[in-house]
Amino acid sequence: MASMRLLAIIAILVQWSVIGDSQELPRFDPELAVAKASEVAEGKVGPDVKIFNVVDFGAKPNGTTLSTINFIRAFKAACNHNGSAMLVIPEGNFLLGSALFSGPCTFKPPLMVQFNGNLFPQGSTSTAENADWLTFMNFDGLFISGKGTINGLGEKRAWNAVCDGCRRKAANLKLIKLNDVLISGITSINSKGFHMMISVCNNFVITNVNISAPDASPNTDGIHMSKTNKVKITNSIISTGDDCVSMIHGTTNVTIENVHCGPGHGFSIGSLGHYEDEFDVFGITVRNCSMAYTENGARIKTYRNESPSKALGIIFQDITMDHVKNPILIDQEYATIPGSVDSKVLISDVEFSNIRGTTISKIAVVLTCSTTFPCKDITLKDIHLEYAGDPDHNEDTPFSSNCTNVKVNYIGEQMPPPCA
Hints:
This protein is elongated. The strands form 2 sheets. It has a 28-stranded parallel beta sheet that branches. Strands 1-2 form a two-stranded antiparallel sheet. A hairpin with a 2-residue loop joins strand 1 and strand 2. It is mostly beta strands. The protein is 10% helix and 50% strand. Mean pLDDT is 90; it is low at 1-26 and 125-129. The protein is built from 6 helices and 30 strands.
């Protein structure tokens, strides 16, 4: 009876509505999906769900036999199924090369992925290094849940490599042109580049994930997003060498809650203004989060470039800092495109509220805005940060804030003191 109820619940996760010749996006209930994530991880999905186990397609869980084609065949079979489908990655160690799991598909959404195995990358050729590792692309409804691990072995195969044209290194998991996605329970370790890369997606939930790489690992962003709408990231730990979460152009309506970040470079909006014709960023909320020993805390960064865009409607709220170098930072001089003199990104309607803890910087609040487009409607409310750095370092420098091209609205307690 419980299995039948679960099947009915999964069946209503996505409902299609057709109006005229247009088809609306599926309706996705994030809370309902999260509530059932553990049952999918255990395979409790009901008798009407057809199982596609990668082992049945020839994959070997021995950690030495290359199983890329077997994973792709299992996905294709599930993708082309005309009913409810679940792709199973059982316990064991699987060796995989770069793999593309792409639609369009005919399954009844969502495709459930029971992910309990451990994945390791193939070889160390230059082609393998620069191709994203696992890519899901171009279909609606993806439900990944389990205790599995994606281990990019970046420490052995990427981080110390000579810069090959400085191209971005392979992401552990790339998700592109997808709607209605839940990722729950999995672990990502030591990615060559980004751990999760999300682009051109809609309706995303990431919960109870564990992302880790050493603080010196280069460009290993935890979750990196662009041109994506409606994302919720909750109850996760992200410890890496770059941004814990990075949100670049076209990222809208994102909520990040109960996430611990550290080490890493904090929660970052940007870099913005890097490319021509960038889409705006808006509706970003980061709250009830903690950071420890990170390079930055709550950060917005833009290039000095001629590309105009906007970043607005941004809230950093109820955040605890522990020995964070730059707890509150707007940096519109992050980098310069040749020939540019100023950032053309307009930052407005930003609130930093109830930010508390310790910093190792004597200048704990830095708001460096554009001369051409000064920051507007910036609010600092109830800020209490204490200096916890070397007491003998810059002992004559007062604990302070630094503001350029911005007028700040101060509310409540302010420590360090407001800008003059």
